[in-house]
Amino acid sequence: MKKRNYLLAIAAFTVLGAQAKDYFVAPESRGTGDGSSWENAMKPDWNYQSGDNIYLSEGTYVASSIKLVNGVYYTGGFSSSAKGTDIADYDPESYATILTPNNGNTDVFLSLEGDHKTTETILKGLTIKGVSGCQVEDFTGSVLYLENALLTMEDVVVTDNTTTYGGIIVPKFSILKCRRCVFSNNIQLKECTNTREKGIGSILMSLRSGDDTNHTLLVMDRCVIYGNSFYDSNTAAWTEEGGLINGEKHGCDVIMVNNFVDGSGMNIKRMAGFLRMNTTSKTTPQLGVFAYNTIYNFTVTDQQATGTTVTLGGNTTMFLGGNIIVSPQDYVEVEYGEFMPDGSKQTNYKASYVKDNALNPTEGSTSNQCFAVGKCSTAEDVPQLLGAGYNFVGGRTMINKGNFWVEDWGRVTSAYEVGDNWRVINQSDIFGDNEPYVDGYVGYIAPVAGVGCEEADSKKIIEAWELPAFREHIQGYQNLSYTIDYLDDLDLTVDILGNERGEKTWSGCYDVTKAGSGIKGVVADGIEALEIVKIGEGRYEIKSDAEAEVYDMTGRRVAVGSGIIDLNGFPQGVYVVKAGSANAKLLK
């Protein structure tokens, strides 16, 4: 992976590398228009070179389509009144930078062709809206198509777009990392060419299948998903696979931590729920990681539905811990081995029952499942599971529609079989009548006091997450070993709001202990500018007599020292440096 370190500070700016250039861009050119400063901002031509840094002023940028350049960092969220080369006031919530198509686009709006996932491209602080691509041939997305690419989207809002067939975003043989992104009010339309008999109706993402050595990986960290829907009931009925996210056949891996998903009452129809990863072979296992997610408000009305809220294919190595995955519908508890009271298999779609806090199948029931693993034809196909439990679910959890159940799952290690791995509970039991609070950047729904508080041990979940046996197991598969780096880059010690997790935490994203992140206090302290000079790869000189403290954007102090600060080994991103009464932001 190509790495570049550049400085973002209040009083100092350094251009890195002889070939890499920094361009300041606005919707309309200013001054000389050469992009050398905000006063001379250039109008975007989108023809940049790998290694360039593109800083975009607030405003709306209109284009028929944009071919992203591999290895370029595109960063929006800067005020139109910024001066010189000052990029300290990055604030995408206040300074919206909007990319939108003109009326001429009929296919994908943004596209990126990479170099076999070896060079990172970044989209940061942008809003993408108003896209209505048709995908007239193969499914390539309407908002974004990736091929052999490594793309990070951070603080990106994807809203008010439509798609037909394959989802608004389609990664093929690619790695897509979404951090603090919002996906809202996007709509799935029925096939516009009327040539297909069925639709892979993923509203948000269709992950194109890989092979034994070339997987597609989706990483979602602290993202918010709400308000997405099918256009009408006919569109939902036409849809067969996916729901919001769909992995096509094998070779697709998904890592989700600290996310909030409101299904907005979406009906699980056939194989469509929130997420579906298709089956895979023994030689090409998949990875499914779910920790501290809240996924709720999906419904089931079709008695013959085979879809679930979350479905993973067989032969999937899984980490599961601290999730809330529930639907509004009640489950029914019956004694082990008994049929539903009316004895009809056709009405068992709302059935679940519990024995000794372990889920068991209701014979004949195929829907209202909450979490499922499919296509396990033999016991050897049953996936490897690691987790610390404390997952709240609504409806049934099952493997292969009844062939193998929770108690038969293989495990990487038995060291963390603690807690109730699947606590069957209804959505109203956790949230009551509380409604989600979503303002475009933060999703929050307050749990009912007392539910899950004592059971969800965040320490155990984090210990399991860091357990060497889990990581060694993944590294044993060539096609999965590359994901270890992305696990290391994810932090389970904070929730979606940036709060530190208490020892006893709510299952899902919400903490009983609301410890402040501290980042606002750091930014607010003092009014003096702080000069920072880059002196080497990952090393900075802090020009202050006071001891300097460096915080990441979760509020954790990651480094402290006088004079020289070494950030080698820390992930790229925004850091806050505080020394005495002065402070500055630093973009590594």
In angstroms, what is the radius of gyration?
A: 24 Å
What would the average pLDDT be, to the nearest integer? Answer: 74
Proportion of strand residues? 25-35%
Class from helix and strand fractions:
mainly beta
Could you describe the 3D structure shown?
With 588 residues, the chain is mainly beta. The protein is 6% helix and 35% strand. The protein is built from six helices and 50 strands. A twelve-stranded parallel sheet has the order 1-2-5-8-11-15-19-24-28-31-36-39, with helices on one face. The chain has an eleven-stranded parallel sheet with strand order 3-6-9-12-16-20-25-29-32-37-40, with no helix packed on it. Strands 18-23-27-30-35-38 form a six-stranded parallel sheet, with no helix packed on it.
Which tags fit this structure?
twelve-stranded parallel sheet, mainly beta, disordered N terminus, globular, 588 residues, eleven-stranded parallel sheet, 6% helix
List the helices and strands and how they pair.
Layout: E1 22-25, E2 53-57, E3 59-63, E4 66-67, E5 73-78, E6 97-101, E7 110-113, E8 120-124, E9 127-129, E10 144-147, E11 150-154, E12 157-159, E13 162-164, E14 169-172, E15 175-179, E16 182-184, E17 187-189, E18 205-207, E19 216-221, E20 224-226, E21 229-230, H1 233-238, E22 241-242, E23 245-247, E24 252-257, E25 260-267, E26 271-272, E27 275-277, E28 286-291, E29 294-299, E30 308-313, E31 316-321, E32 324-326, E33 353-355, E34 358-360, E35 369-374, E36 384-389, E37 391-393, E38 396-399, E39 410-411, E40 422-424, H2 427-431, E41 437-438, E42 443-444, H3 458-465, H4 468-475, H5 484-488, H6 519-524, E43 528-529, E44 532-536, E45 539-542, E46 548-552, E47 557-561, E48 564-566, E49 574-579, E50 582-587
Parallel strand pairs: 1-2, 2-5, 3-6, 4-7, 5-8, 6-9, 7-10, 8-11, 9-12, 10-14, 11-15, 12-16, 13-17, 15-19, 16-20, 17-21, 18-23, 19-24, 20-25, 22-26, 23-27, 24-28, 25-29, 27-30, 28-31, 29-32, 30-35, 31-36, 32-37, 35-38, 36-39, 37-40, 43-50
Antiparallel strand pairs: 33-34, 41-42, 44-45, 45-48, 46-47, 46-49, 49-50
